[in-house]
Design brief:
- This protein is an all-alpha fold.
- Helices cover 71% and strands 0% of the residues.
- The protein contains 14 helices and no strands.
- It is globular, with a radius of gyration of 24 Å.
- The mean pLDDT is 85.
């Protein structure tokens, strides 16, 4: 019976793959530990959650989640959650509507000095958000848009649009030009080309861009905290309401953070395959 002797090169390659796999698992565990700790803390009572060092083997309870859903205060989390979902979803749809034609013009139909245009888009993210807070507040006050979900939709759209254009340009640059030329010969207009040809080809990229924009909008706190109040308050603003200067609040905050993070986690797991494909679509030429 013949035996196979591995060459030194093959053995070294397997060792490298094993070491990289182990490193990947260690990195995943390191990034997952804070989330696991947050979930565990949310299942403890306030005295157990506040102990230093934290009590891992303390009895588990759902009191923090009951507090999040207003068992003692009567404050329902559903209006803020609905506000966050509405603002995030509508702004993400607007970002896609605006970014896909812009990225098409900058990649498939390149304009002159397109790199300067791309740098201009990116430069809008260099200004600290707090620097534009006062002008935006004054404009919203004069326009009567304070404490309005529509204002958040406009802000989130403008904040995520530069990132979406950058991402979609890298995705659209992978579309074969021959397909577009064939569509043009057949008489397809720009809306038809974008909807029936470009969109199916770059669907993973659209999914990745949508999810990232949705996450950024869902987690935004600064503008929502200053520009909203009772009517249009979002989930992150509702979360900060559990932080008080009196009494213990760590378990309630962790329970609220778990509940508020669930929609994004569910969306990420649902679009996991598309997200991985999309993030790697324009990575290699």
């Amino acid at each position: 019976m013949a035996t196979t002797i591995d060459s030194p090169g093959g053995l070294t390659a397997r060792r490298k793959r094993g070491a990289l796999g182990l490193l990947a698992w260690l990195c995943g565990i390191v990034f997952f530990l804070p989330v696991a700790w947050m979930v565990l803390t949310s299942l403890h009572s306030e005295p157990d959650a506040a102990t230093n060092p934290p009590s891992i083997g303390a009895p588990l309870t759902l009191q923090g989640y009951r507090e999040f859903f207003g068992s003692s205060t009567g404050m329902s989390p559903w209006p803020p959650l609905i506000n966050s979902f509405s603002a995030s979803l509508m702004s993400t749809l607007l970002v896609l509507v605006l970014s896909i034609p812009a990225a098409y013009a900058l990649s498939i139909k390149p304009v002159r000095k397109w790199s300067d245009a791309m740098f201009f888009f990116l430069s809008t993210k260099m200004l600290p958000a707090v620097a534009g807070l006062l002008p935006i507040y004054l404009i919203a006050k004069n326009a009567g848009l304070l404490d309005n979900v529509a204002l958040l939709v406009i802000l989130y759209t403008s904040m995520n649009l530069p990132i979406a254009v950058w991402m979609m340009r890298s995705f659209l640059s992978e579309v074969p030009v021959e397909i577009l030329e064939a569509a043009s010969i057949d008489g397809a207009g720009l809306p038809t080309v974008l909807a029936r040809i470009v969109a199916p080809v770059v669907a993973p990229g659209i999914a990745a861009t949508s999810l990232i924009c949705f996450i950024f909008s869902w987690n935004e706190l600064l503008f929502a905290r200053v520009l909203t109040g009772v009517v249009a308050g979002t989930a992150p603003v509702f979360l900060t309401g559990f932080v008080t200067s009196q009494g213990l609040f760590l378990a309630k905050v962790c329970a609220a953070a778990v509940c508020i993070s669930l929609p994004v986690l569910i969306a990420g797991f649902a679009a996991q395959d598309k997200l991985v494909q999309g993030l790697s679509l324009g990575a290699v030429k």
